[in-house]
Design goal:
By secondary structure, this protein is of the alpha/beta class. The chain is built from 14 helices and 21 strands. α5 crosses α8 and α10 packs across α14. The structure holds cytidine-5'-triphosphate (CTP). GO terms for molecular function: FMN binding; metal ion binding; phosphopantothenate--cysteine ligase activity; phosphopantothenoylcysteine decarboxylase activity.
């Protein structure tokens, strides 16, 4: 952590006293630390305690009267922003972008990566509002740590206890090292599902939510890669720092791939591309005319985009396909790997509703053309994204 600049936000929770110890650990590890406190936090620990350790003025609500925009200057300063402990109140405000104190305003204005470490009573933790707010933070690209189960200040054991400072320091270390290992790599990711228009109001599509592709984009960006995300009809928030290109149809996607693939080191083809499109797009809405009308649609094939780009692959470029299967999983994945000339296929069992389309969790088998094969546990799509990147990284020179 040598020379890293960390802004620590301390909010109103009894666990604030543990932030003092964390601060010592960070400084011992070579980091430079600045502290911002909410007024509620100052009732648990005094700013002087943090100031003495950090050897820097601690920002509180008392600083609003200072000349200059101290919160903006502090927001710009850090390489990482860590909220420790994060109260339910702070999490709610951060999830909605409320800036009503020195801490929330500085946090909102800070561009560098963010880590939120919740600590609260189990009732607050289990409240759906808190869980909803944390999901929102994660969707906004903010890292979060889960509280431990253990003895709470209330005098009983439950979930809500802040992880120990050593654990938090290790997570912070990981966030810094994470940013290094994909630096210089240009990563192109496709996500979502293409839509093939039938008439001005109808289209053919599929159930892909785009979550896996978006998690891959977020993870690759966090590892320092330069990431472009071609998004087909996804409503998720754009991961911070990722360049977004929106497409609708397979043909739009084909055009973008032709332009962007030559400047790509790693292509992750997570989008569900429609294999067929209506042979004609009717300019007016198709009418049913009579109650018992039948309609036969004529479809024509879209090109296999993955296969197309894989055949144009230059040495050093890595092409990764995805196989969404409901039966004969391994055989189908092996066939696609060979047929599409991909370097890896990520096999996904979409027949299982717990891990398929639109689910938050996933389980995949990563299969390499070089004979590599590994199955991940069932875990969050962000954890799966990390595993996929770790496997691909091993192929870099
Ligand atoms: N793919 C593609 N172009 C298509 C169809 C699929 O580039 N026209 C890509 C997908 O993005 C994915 C991989 O190929 O990375 C496998 O997609 P999938 O839909 O599972 O396979 P298909 O090739 O459509 O094969 P099948 O219909 O037999 O399952």
């Amino acid at each position: 952590m040598d020379g890293k600049k960390i802004t620590v936000y301390v909010t109103g929770s009894i666990a604030a006293y543990k932030a003092v110890y964390l601060l010592r650990l960070l400084i011992k590890a070579g980091a430079e630390v600045r502290v911002v406190m909410t007024t509620a936090a100052t009732r648990f620990v005094t700013p002087l305690t943090f100031q003495t350790l950090a050897q820097h003025h601690v920002l509180t609500d008392a600083d609003w009267d200072q000349t200059g925009v101290v919160h903006v200057e502090t927001a710009q300063w850090g390489d990482l922003n860590v909220v420790v402990p994060a109260s339910a109140d702070f999490i709610a405000k951060a999830a909605t972008g409320i800036a009503d104190s020195m801490a929330t305003t500085t946090f909102l204005a800070a561009p560098a990566p963010k880590l939120v470490v919740p600590a609260m009573n189990d009732g607050m933790w289990n409240n759906p509002a808190t869980q909803r707010n944390l999901t929102q933070l994660r969707q906004d690209g903010i890292h979060t740590l889960s509280p431990d189960s253990g003895f709470l200040a209330e005098g009983y054991a439950a979930k809500g206890r802040m992880p120990e400072p050593e654990v938090i320091a290790t997570e912070i270390e990981k966030l810094f090292t994470k940013e290094q290992d994909w630096q210089g790599k240009r990563v192109l990711i496709t996500a979502g599902g293409t839509r093939e228009d039938l008439d001005p109001v109808r289209y053919l599509s599929n159930r892909s939510s785009g979550k896996m592709g978006y998690e891959l984009a977020r993870a690759a960006q966090a590892h320092g890669a330069e990431v472009t995300l071609i998004s087909a009809n996804v409503t998720l928030p754009t991961p911070p720092g990722v360049k977004l290109v929106r497409v609708r149809t397979a043909q739009d996607l084909a055009i973008q791939l032709q332009t962007l693939f030559p400047q790509t080191d790693v292509l992750l083809m997570a989008a569900a591309v429609s294999d067929f499109r209506p042979a004609q797009v009717v300019p007016q809405k198709i009418k049913k005319i009579t109650e018992d009308a039948h309609l036969t649609l004529e479809l024509e094939a879209n090109p296999d985009l993955l296969k197309l780009v894989a055949t144009q692959k230059k040495p050093g470029q890595l092409v990764v396909g995805f196989a969404a299967e409901t039966e004969d999983l391994k055989q189908n994945a092996a066939r696609k790997l060979a047929n599409k000339k991909a370097d890896f296929i990520i096999l996904n069992d979409v027949g299982n509703p717990q891990i398929g389309f639109n689910a938050d969790d996933n389980q995949v088998t990563i299969i390499g053309a070089n004979g590599f094969e590994t199955q991940t546990p069932v875990e969050s799509k962000s954890a799966i994204a990390e595993r996929i990147l770790a496997v691909l990284k091993k192929t870099f020179n």
